[in-house]
Amino acid sequence: MPRDYAHRSKPKPRRAATKSTGRSAKKAPAPVKKPPYFAMVIAVALVGAFGYLLMQLNGTAETQPAPVAETTKPKVTTRPQSQLKETPLPPPPAEDWQYIEELENKEVVVDVPPPEPSQGPYQMQCASFRSSAQAESMKAKIAFQGKEAMVRRAEGKSGTWYKVVLGPYEQKRSAEKDRHILARSGIKTCKIWKWQG
Predict the structure, then answer these.
(1) CA-CA distances (angstroms) from residue 68 to 20, 64, 176?
(2) Which of 7, 102, 121, 184 could form a disulfide with 195 if both were Cys (CB 3.0 to 4.6 A apart)?
């Protein structure tokens, strides 16, 4: 008789045999791990050896005295009192300062460059504003630096302008000096021109 392998049911897995005590099977308790005695013994031995080594080092440091540097006292030779009285001190050397006399009679000639000719009065313009209030504010900032400025009204093709001007300066060097003072305070827009009265 031929067997039908295609429709044959798979065999059921077998269950583990349990004791027939009537109660459900309990899980077996996990085995108790023993502490690593060998590792503990090695750790204690290492700590003991380290402590012994420290005691030995400490003992040798205490027993060995610190080296003391030998100090030698300088030998002092003393002369008898009779010899000290017999040898007088030599007289002080005579001071011969020749340059003092030379400097008293010497004249120093210094070439002073002639003052540069004044090419007319200069003015320094630091700002130009559309509004009078802005010009007055700039004038106040310049006054805080100890310089006196004036606000000059100018009519042009583009309208009315208020210019903040310092001067007149007889020499351009004086205007440059004031421009550097104002630049250090933050006002770096000043220009030097010929005076426009």
Answers:
(1) 92, 12, 73
(2) 121
pTM score, two decimals?
0.41
- b/e string for 59-83 if b means 16 or more Cβ within 10 A? eeeeeeeeeeeeeeeeeeeeeeeee
Q: Look up residue 19 and give its DSSP letter.
A: -
Using DSSP's 3-state secondary structure scheme, residue 195 falls into coil
Q: Which residues contact 145 (CB under 8 A, 6 or more apart)?
A: 181, 182, 185, 187
Q: Does some domain include residue 112? A: no
Total tally of structural domains belonging to the chain: 1
Range of the structural domain that residue 135 is part of: 122-194
Q: Has residue 52 been placed in a domain? A: no
Torsion of Cα atoms, 137 then 141 then 147 then 152, to 10°? -20
CATH assignment at residue 148: 3.30.70.1070
What are 52's two structure tokens? Answer: 């012994």
170 within a domain of the structure (yes/no): yes
Measured CA to CA, the distance from residue 38 to residue 16 in angstroms comes to 39
Q: Is residue 85 part of a domain?
A: no
